[in-house]
Specification:
With 68 residues, the chain is mainly β. It is 9% helix and 38% strand. The protein has a domain at 13-57. The longest helix has 6 residues, at 52-57.
């Protein structure tokens, strides 16, 4: 499964590692995505990857754990 947020579409970001001598080497940063159970608009619960920014800002409704 790819590391892409299902809410905002955030994914890998590219750039360079810069050494002390200013040499550049390509590298990638992964998005901080977590696998969480999400409640859809129709009430169905599904497991999706959501980035930490969307979780923190409340853009997604998490399914609550039901204890018996």
């Amino acid at each position: 499964m790819s590391r892409v947020c299902s809410v905002c579409g955030k994914s890998k970001m590219g750039g360079n590692t810069v050494s002390h001598s200013n040499r550049k080497a390509p590298r990638q940063w992964n998005a901080n995505v977590q696998k969480v159970k999400v409640v859809a608009d129709n009430g169905a619960v599904s497991s999706e990857y959501v980035c930490s920014r969307c979780l923190r800002s409340g853009k997604v409704a998490r399914a609550t754990k039901v204890s018996k």
